[in-house]
Structure formats: C-alpha cells, structure tokens
Design goal:
424 residues, paralog of FGE (formylglycine-generating enzyme), 4-stranded mixed sheet, 3-stranded antiparallel sheet, 10 helices, disordered N terminus
Length: 424
C-alpha cells in the first residue's frame, strides 16, 4: 500500500441501506434525458434534476454541515437554491420557478451527489454519533418520498407532451378474475393508533394514543376504473347534489369531467383511454381508479350511498396486516386489479393512496422535532386531508400502517384513489 493511500473504510450497518436508496434514485432517473430532467410541468411538480439535488442538499445541510470535521459545502450557493421550504435554513428559491434553474446542469448535480455520498460513507465509517445517524435515517426516508414524487411529476410532465411518450415499458398483463365488492364489518371499540415504536417513524405518526370507533364496515377492495366510469356516465360530474360546495365550485371553474389523465371519447360507446407511465392505454375497468381529488372521492362515496373511511378506521383495520402489495419495487408503476388470494381486506398497501375523511392535524401530545427539521410535517397541518396505504410508486420499505400522507382537497397528480366505508 502506498504511504499516502486512504485506509479502507469499515462499512457502517446503515451504509448498505444508504447505498440502496441512493442507487434507486439513479435507476428511476435512468430512462430520462437531461431535457426530461430539466422541465417543470406545473407549480405543484418539480423537475427531476431538482429532486436529485434537493435530497442531496438535505444530507449536506442537515448531516455534513453540523457533523463533518472541517465541513466545506460543494457549492455555497446551493444552500438556498435547493432548499424546499425550510425557513430556518434560509430563503428557498420559488417553487413554481424550479424549472428555470438550468445551472447547475444535470452532470454537476450527479457530481455533487457522488461527493456527498463519499463524505456520508466516511462519516459513518468514522463513528458518526447517534444524532447524525438518526438524521441520515430521516434523509433516506425523505429521499424515498422524493422518489415517489419523481415518478408522479414525470408522469404529469410526459402527459402534457402531444407525443404521449413512455417512461417505462408496459407491464406484463395477465388475466385476473374480477373480485366482487364486499363489506368487511368491524365492531369498533377502543383502539390504539399511531406508531408502535418499532423502526422508523415521522413525527406526525406520534404519539401513539387511544381512540374510540363506532361499528363500521370497509369495502374489501379499492374502487375500480369501471365503477368510476359508471359514475361518469350517470352524470356524476354534472350533479351538484353529490358534491361539497367547494368541490362543486372546483368542478365548474376547472371544467372537470373525469379523473386526471382520462381521455373521454367524443361520441359512441368506446371506453376512455388513460395516460400512464407506460404511455396511453385503454381503460382497464378492473384496475383501481387513481388520480382523483378529495372532492371527487367524497362525491363518488355519496353517489354510492357510502362514505370515506376515517384514518383511524383505516389504520385499525390495517395494523395487523403484512405490508404487501403493488408497490414501487414491483415496477408495475400502475395500479393493478385486486387478487382474491385470501378474502378479507385487499389492496390495503400499494396500488393507490386512499383518501380518508380525516383532516390532517396533530395527534394529542404531538411534538415536532427540534431545529429546522421540525418544519418537516407540523407546518402543513391546515387545509389538508389524510391519505393512507401507499401506492404503486411508494417504496416497500417506506410504508407502514401508521404512515400519514396528506394533500389539499384539489390535488390529484399523485396516485390517489379510494376505498368505501359505511357506518353500521
């Protein structure tokens, strides 16, 4: 060994997971050109290049800056440029204008990622304190969130291209018997919800606490595209009786006639087509409906003579189930039909995020994390509704029964759908 050669670093147990998550982001970006990675299709979406840079910013800002001896940033200007909403760190660049950040180019972002990865590996090998390791774990969960956002943002970007391009080759279709809808009844009573203390959790999943449930029932599977088409054909988007007042105003002002990415036939009885990450596809009536807003989910539930479940009803039902389903790791990247392997509740994890009727708020005794990372969840606890269960774009290691996603009532570019509930 040469006298000036660096010693081999002993890998930290967290290092393999770190490498896997970072490699997954690279793999998700692989089908895209530099031009694809630069563009921003709407204010709610971000360019792929920005996602790749922002998650790297997280590790440099919250891990390396306070814990790396002799810390020097890759580029001091990136501290504000790739900040998202952490006001405690600095003044973020305007979200609707992220597509205008043509410099640094994509190659420089990759160089930055590689350098930060080497420095994080060295920090872990040199014996990073537990506080640093906790932040690395948070950063990995944060990157997995952005992997899902990367896919949904790319889908929206490609959908506005008249060429209707394909991100990913079509998934192999195999015949699946249609699963009839059925009600699964629950007695209710006193239940415990919130994170159980095993493994990682975000602060908004805590503290674990008790809540009372009245008797209720949940549909055994998700609502399908075919069932939603019945709602469309029955004039569901033209009947104000099914809609919340704000939802009806939204439908009329935005000219909403169907879920996002549907193309309705101009005439005749032909089925709609649906834009997917695999390109334009015929509507499959047995797959779960997706890309619907809270307003739409609530209106459909009313039209069906049912309601949306509360997040407590959903979590109490899912808590004892294994986290199995059509998640990102399966690479379908589109909701798939229910498979009636064992009866009971199906599709509780994966396929689509399920809207609930619960406002996104703090659990009793909630405390945000200290410092700038405390801005992660708590600051959004207003004008949002909770979704549960993950989607076909959610990494399997990222989801659990206590996970609380949240979006405003008109958001629908995410893989969002619904399961019906009713009171007994």
């Amino acid at each position: 060994m040469q006298a000036n050669a660096s010693p081999l670093l002993a890998p930290h147990p967290l290092a393999a997971h770190y490498a896997d998550v970072r490699a997954r982001s690279r793999a998700l970006s692989a089908p895209l050109s530099a031009e694809d990675c630069q563009a921003q299709s709407m204010p709610d979406a971000s360019p792929v290049k920005w996602h790749l840079a922002h998650v790297t910013w997280f590790f440099e800002t919250f891990v390396l800056e306070p814990f790396e001896p002799g810390f020097q940033p890759f580029n001091p200007a990136f501290r504000d440029l790739f900040n998202s909403y952490y006001q405690g760190v600095g003044e973020p660049f305007a979200r609707p204008q992220r597509g205008l950040i043509t410099r640094p180019d994509l190659a420089e972002v990759w160089r930055w990622r590689d350098q930060v990865d080497e420095r994080i590996a060295r920090l872990m090998a040199d014996g990073a304190p537990q506080s640093a390791l906790r932040l690395i774990g948070l950063g990995l969960q944060h990157e997995q969130q952005h992997q899902e956002l990367l896919l949904t943002d790319v889908k929206h970007l490609l959908s506005v291209n008249p060429l209707r391009p394909t991100y990913h080759r079509p998934w192999p279709l195999t015949p699946v018997a249609h699963v009839a809808s059925a009600w699964i009844e629950f007695d209710g009573g006193l239940v415990e919800v919130g994170h159980d203390g095993r493994g990682f959790s975000f602060d908004n999943e805590n503290p674990r606490h008790r809540q009372w449930l009245e008797p209720h029932a949940l549909m055994n599977r998700l609502v399908t595209h075919g069932e939603w088409l019945d709602f469309v054909l029955d004039g569901g988007y033209q009947a104000p009786r099914w809609w919340l007042a704000a939802g009806w105003d939204w439908v009329r002002s935005q000219g909403i006639r169907a879920p996002l990415y549907w193309t309705l036939p101009l005439e005749g009885s032909a089925l709609p087509t649906v834009f997917t990450l695999h390109g334009e596809m015929p509507l499959d009536p047995h797959t779960p409906v997706t890309h619907i807003s809270y307003f739409e989910a609530d209106a459909f539930a009313r039209w069906s003579g049912a309601r949306l479940p509360t997040e407590v009803e959903w979590e109490a039902a899912a808590a004892s189930l294994p986290v199995l389903g059509n998640l990102q790791d399966g690479n379908a990247l589109h909701p798939l039909p229910a498979r009636n392997a064992s009866g009971g509740l199906l599709q509780m994890f994966g396929d689509v995020w399920e809207w609930t009727s619960s406002h996104y708020g703090a659990y009793p005794g909630y405390q945000p994390a200290e410092g700038a990372v405390g801005e992660y969840n708590g600051k959004f606890m207003v004008n949002q509704y909770v979704l549960r269960g993950g989607s076909c774009a959610t990494p399997a290691s990222h989801i659990r029964a206590s996970y609380r996603n949240f979006f405003p009532t008109d958001a629908r570019w995410q893989f969002s759908g619904l399961r019906l509930a009713r009171s007994l």
